[in-house]
Amino acid sequence: MKRIVTGCLALLTSIASFGQADVKDPKAKGILDQLSKKTNAYTSIHATFDHSLKNESEGLDEVNEGELWLEGNKFRVKLVGQDIRCNGTTQWNFIEDDEEVTVEDYEPEGEDAMMSPTNIFTMYESGFKYQYVGQMKKAGKEADVIKLFPEKADKFFHTAVLYIDHEKLEIMSIELKGKDGNNYAYAIKSFETNASFPKSTFQWVASENPDIDVIDLR
Length: 218
Fold this sequence. Notes:
By secondary structure, the chain is mainly beta. It has helices at 3-6, 26-40, 111-115, and strands at 45-55, 60-71, 74-79, 82-86, 90-95, 100-105, 128-138, 141-150, 157-165, 170-178, 183-193, 213-216.
């Protein structure tokens, strides 16, 4: 996936002191552990979100609506003219403007995977130090704010900011603050769990799209 879709295709300038991230804040850990336990108990997730990309120095400010489906290791993401589906082993990437779909073996590792909206609800589970910032009002709700700092320096971002609904214990938004000045954010608009999805949700059905070119890169 291209970064605009992944960082887009999950909610990210500088903090006052990186030294504050030298330890894993127990209050932050307690909230994250509860959030992880609740999230991993879902059989599926369907969510809509706003994805934004901002870079003040370049005058960049883009907002796009997106939608995602998650079920086990399967996912689907619709964002910025793309429809990406994965059944856990194979990934289909439909480009609307090109009227073509590419087929690849799914690779769950790497930077693009970290940027994917499919990781919005789990990216915090490993590879981070964390700091509890406090509570604040966000979208009319009380939110717990936690900063995450990558333990490895090879990530494209230096800080992630997680906003968690204090009452529902659900992710409201996540921000990724890039080292290159690009800041990405995902704001959850709707959130549905434990629904059943048809098989076609997570894989491309060529017979239903006869006019679309299929490029198999496997």
